[in-house]
Amino acid sequence: MLIVVSPAKSLDFESPVKTGKYTLPRFTDQSRELVETLREHSPEDLSELMNISARLGELNARRYMNWQLPFTPDNAKQAAFAFTGDVYAGLDVESLSAKDLEYAQRHLRILSGLYGVLRPLDLMQPYRLEMGTRLSVGGAKDLYGFWGEQITQVLNEDLKGDRPRLLVNLTSNEYFRSVKEKVLEADVISPVFKDHKNGEYKIISFYAKKARGMMAAWLIRHRITNLEGLTGFDAGGYRYSAADSTANRPVFLRKQT
After folding, report:
1. What is the pLDDT of residue 164?
2. Do residues 34 and 129 lie in contact, with contact meaning Cβ atoms separated by under 8 Å?
3. Strands 77-78 and 123-124, how do they pair?
4. Predicted confidence band at 160 (pLDDT cuts at 50, 70, 90)?
5. Alpha helices (H) in the chain, listed in sequence order
6. Strands 108-112 and 2-5
7. Structure letter (DSSP) for residue 255
8. H-state helical runs in 67-108
9. What DSSP assignment string belongs to 18-29?
C-alpha cells in the first residue's frame, strides 16, 4: 500500500528535526529546470502567476534565487518536517516513532509541483509552486504537462512487490490530477471525511484536510496494507459508514466537531 498526500503552502525551516536520517529527491534535474524558468520571472510576475500577494511574490523570488544543489542538511530539510498546515497537523510527524518513520519512508509519498514526488525524509528547500500553476516550461503549457507520466511511473516503481497494489489517495483534486490513473498499476482508494453540521453530514475543508493527515498517520502506525484494515480508521472521532461508501470511496463520518 502506498499513501499519497498533498504538500502545504506553509513551511517551517526553523524548528529542529528529531532524526538525522535523510534521503535525496529523485527529480532534482526536473526541479532545477523548473527553478531556472521561475528565475526568469520578476516578483510581480510570480504574484500574478501564482495569484499571491506582492510580499509572497518577493519571498518566492528570493527562494528561487537562493535555491541550489546539492541539498544537504545544512541548506535543506526533510519534507515531512518542513511542511506545516492542516494535513501535517493531522499527520503530526513529530509523534511518529523511529520505526514509524522507517515505515513511512517506504509507504508515504508527498506530491509536489516542484519536486514531483517526495518521500518523508527527502531533503527539500523552501518553495511555493502549486500543481495547478499554469507555468509554461519545457514545451509544456502547465505543470501537468511538464510532469506527464513521470510522477505515475515513480509511484509504480514504489508499488512494486506490494500485494495487493493499493494507492490510498489522501490528496486534493488539484494534486491527484498529476497521477495518470490509466498508467497507474494499482487500485485507487479515495477516502472521504464528512462532519455533522446543521443537521447533515458534509465535507468541511479544514476538518477534511486534517483527517487526511490523521488517516495517513494511523495507517502508518497500524501498518495497514489492505482496504479492510483501512475501514477500521477511528482517529479523531471518525467512523466508517458502509451505507455511505462505495468500493473505492470509503466514507468516514464524525458527529462531533
Report:
1. 86
2. yes
3. antiparallel
4. very high
5. 28-38, 43-50, 54-66, 79-82, 86-91, 98-107, 143-147, 150-159, 173-176, 205-222, 227-230
6. parallel
7. S
8. 79-82, 86-91, 98-107
9. S----B--S-HH
Q: What is the mean pLDDT of residues 78-104?
A: 97
Give residue 254's identity as a one-letter amino acid code.
R
Q: Give the phi and the psi of residue 22 in degrees, each rounded to 5.
A: -160, 160
Amino acid 256: pLDDT: 72
**Strand-by-strand arrangement of the 2-5 sheet:** 116-118, 108-112, 2-5, 166-170, 187-189
User: What cell numbers appear for 68 in the block?
Assistant: 541550489
Estimate to the nearest angstrom the gap between the alpha carbon of 80 and the chain centroid. Answer: 9
At 244 the pLDDT is 97
Residues 6+ apart with CB under 8 A from 66: 125
User: Which of 30, 13, 35 lies closest to 126, judged by CA?
Assistant: 13
Query: pTM surpassing 0.85?
Result: yes
Distance between CA atoms of residues 164 and 142, nearest Å: 33
Which run of H or E residues covers position 192?
A: strand 192-197
Helix, strand, coil percentages in the chain from 3-state DSSP, rounded to 5: 40, 20, 40
How many DSSP H helices and E strands does the chain contain? 11, 11
CB 231 within 8 A of CB 218: no
Query: Nearest to residue 138, comparing CAs of 29, 3, 34?
Result: 34
> Per-residue pLDDT tens for 46-58?
999 999 999 999 9
Measure the CA angle with vertex 132, ends 126 and 134; round to 5°.
Answer: 95
